[in-house]
């Protein structure tokens, strides 16, 4: 063992990311409600575009991503020159940290914030600063109080994962305007398409010089396995990010499939409407069985149990019945389970099983 070979400080302190489980031992019919995936998958047009790419795999992909940026610009009515494409929004988050964070930099996010913010901050040698939320909701005043002359980035997912709550655009703008001059607000809008009429922070990122918005094809577009995300913000910041981006970071299949996906807004609307209907149904069904949740604005529900033991026991019970949900102890919510809104049969099944579990747990059978 050569102890002269050492990574940069902080790297070995990073806790490895654990994705939502996708299998239950001994079962082939497990239903996965653990990663906030679109249960209906991508649009047929996206699948057709992906299949067509098989014929051009010997060709290097575009390096400027003009086709996909143009399509996003058309659909979202944004300037394509202020858009950057990445390997999921994870890569945009990573590029932001790589470009703006180093030793001595602080990066602020909330106590139930997305785990990637911490990982990318530490990978860049920066110091994560975790801020309390109020009733599982982003607290702008607490964030402003945590900022100082070392703050480089502030990450807010809106709607937030895993809480499902969101704050109003006016609150995001108040946050951006209150930041120290060297800090950038990153609005992570991974779930914004689930909120009808919400622009994800695009308007604020258009008007203010210190705001970047990140988006993804992994959620409502149903392309989590393909890995495509994008960022939008001031030209000066996008120009910086393009310098740390690998020129061939995106494959042809990623670019062409995402372009077809974004142009099929009819599919997106159908998925949003189904999600809205089934989410309301699921939340109410669980509440009736004694499992409350905050009003969710995303494609999942954060189900609250009376204790960590109860949440763990329910998770085990669901798994034994072939349903996989997400434990969120890593997000400082050990008494909760995050449940993705699946298709109608999955919603009915998970609600039914949680009702059975509650009845048994209350009777002491599983305690
Ligand atoms: C799922 C998710 C993303 C998307 O990440 P990708 O890398 O685009 O798959 C980003 N932010 C949050 C908060 C998420 O939950």
Automatic annotation (TrEMBL):
Give the top-rank taxon of the lineage listed in the UniProt record for this protein.
Bacteria
Q: Name one GO molecular function term.
A: histidinol-phosphate transaminase activity
- The residues covered by the Aminotransferase class I/classII large domain are 29-352
The gene it comes from is hisC
Q: In which pathway does it act?
A: Amino-acid biosynthesis; L-histidine biosynthesis; L-histidine from 5-phospho-alpha-D-ribose 1-diphosphate: step 7/9
Names of required cofactors: pyridoxal 5'-phosphate
Catalysed reaction equations from the record = L-histidinol phosphate + 2-oxoglutarate = 3-(imidazol-4-yl)-2-oxopropyl phosphate + L-glutamate
List the keywords (alphabetical): Amino-acid biosynthesis, Aminotransferase, Histidine biosynthesis, Pyridoxal phosphate, Transferase
UniProt cross-references to InterPro entries, sorted A to Z = Aminotransferase_I/II_large, HisP_aminotrans, HistidinolP_aminotransfase, PyrdxlP-dep_Trfase, PyrdxlP-dep_Trfase_major, PyrdxlP-dep_Trfase_small
PANTHER family given for it?
A: HISTIDINOL-PHOSPHATE AMINOTRANSFERASE, HISTIDINOL-PHOSPHATE AMINOTRANSFERASE 2
Q: What is this protein called?
A: Histidinol-phosphate aminotransferase
* Subunit and partners: Homodimer.
Group of enzyme by EC: transferase
Q: Sites of the modification N6-(pyridoxal phosphate)lysine?
A: 219
